[in-house]
Known about the structure:
The structure holds 2 protein chains of 2 kinds. Chain A has 11 helices and 10 strands. Chain A is α/β, with parallel strands linked by helices. Chain A starts with a helix and ends in a 34-residue tail after the last helix. The chains are: A alpha/beta, B mainly alpha. Chains A and B meet through α3, β6 and α5 of A and α1, α3, α4 and α8 of B. Bound molecules: adenosine-5'-diphosphate (ADP) and magnesium ion (MG).
Amino acid sequence: xxxxxxxxxxxxxxxxxxGENHVLRGVDLEVHRGESMxxxxxxxxxxxxxxxxxxxxxxxxxxxxxxxxxxxxxxxEKEMNEVRKKFGMLFQWGALFDSMxxxxxxxxxxxxxxxxxxxxxxxxxxxxxxxxxxxxxxxxMPSELSGGMRKRVSLARAIAIxxxxxxxxxxxxxxxxxxxxxxxxxxxxxxxxxxxxxxxxTHDMKSAYKIGDRIAMLYQGKIIEVGTPDExxxxxxxxxxxxxxxxxxxxxxxxxxxxxVMRPQENGHAEKERRDERK
Amino acid sequence: MNPFRWVGSxxxxxxxxxxxxxxxxxxxxxxxxxxPWEMREILKQMQEVGVRSFPVVVITxxxxxxxxxxxxxxxxKRFGAETMVGTVVALSMTRELGPVLTGxxxxxxxxxxxxxxxxxxxxxxxxxALYTLATNPIKYLIVPRFLAAIIMVPVLVIFADxxxxxxxxxxxxxxxxxxxxxxxxxxxxxxxxxxxYIGLLKAFFFGMIIATISCYQGFSAQGGAEGVGRATxxxxxxxxxxxxxxxxxITALLF
Lengths: 279, 255
Ligand SMILES: Nc1ncnc2c1ncn2[C@@H]1O[C@H](COP(=O)(O)OP(=O)(O)O)[C@@H](O)[C@H]1O
Ligand SMILES: [Mg+2]
């Protein structure tokens, strides 16, 4: 029981398939309260699917997910909605609402979940933007922002509702190395200042070492190793070694590069996968 | 491939798709009556549906009324019933052409825009982001579009009816030399309120069809920009076909 209460998120034997494509094949993962967990794995290994299952954007085929000791994998939409208020998520490309200004994006959760007045929402939005290092961007549209700024705004939106858990989907992908490092700093800062539990997924090892208290590697649908950054660096598992050293020869087989064109499914998801449609 | 298999697999795919559209439709209805309503979004969408389609609807209706007058005049002249042109234009516009042509134009202008916008939101994970901010995308995105369509398509049809009748009048009086008073008398004497109601009922259904199919296509878009393009095309094709087919059945039922 003592141990249990220190576990914020527990995933057991999680399975998820898309047709013939068996993406997750029994994932087990425990994230402690206040911990920063990083899940590493190659492109298409199912990292995004894993965190979308955790936040209830996808329905697992099998297995259970517990948050604060409560099972959340069998909740209906209404109950899940309450659970989602504990979460904030930073999407891979920001997923900012492009019909709204920056401050309206950041204040979206507040406008819909609280009864705050407009000017208070705007004030809080500015505070959160300042927290992620942005000033005087309130009235810009998302299309006017650079990639790094989009991620910051998205992060400000995720923390605006003061979540207990933050999920980061490839926080450093698609931005230049300097901006990536600034984002890493920011993630570390978020944990210190906001005292949140976080799960980040990435294939960027530099980022993983910097932001992770512990690192877990996802390979062929399972977590094959979990450990502190030092333990991972000194891992004897040849798959882990190949991945962290970024070598193309080894147990992980590289597919013919011509087959590795941007997988379209990465972002688009079939309607039927939504929890909402199960009601 | 075995032709039976081919037909079979297409039928199954079609039924699956139809089933998913019906589920989305039922969920939309479920959310419509649950406050709070997103008034801002609803007004924005009403403006979008109304303003976007108004010009094309006006032009379509005007020329349709005009050609109807011209065409029916040629026919009626052969048995000396030229004065009936007003009746034909009024009945055809209000019962059939007003709603059907408006429906087709709206699905082209508005249905495509809905599918493209929602499809983009889907592939850029904005719809997922709504869930994570504890906002239901059906309520927030589909309900306002649905309401806007079922309100604004009938409004557009009323305009189409009036403009079509005026177009017919213009051609009859200015070009064909019909007596203006006689033309209007023929229009009013035979036009029943019922004709208008049938047209508006159709418009209501067409609004529903356009919003449901287009939003469904947008929500199920998959695979980046290409997927959004596909969703947009399918939204227009499927809503247009559904409008034409259901139009026949509504007419047949109310005959
Ligand atoms: N909604 C979906 N429908 C079908 N296949 C999907 C869907 N989402 C993800 N996939 C598939 O799952 C696999 C893992 O995807 P993902 O989790 O996005 O990988 P990554 O580790 O790069 O984030 C990929 O093969 C992808 O094609
Ligand atoms: Mg991913």
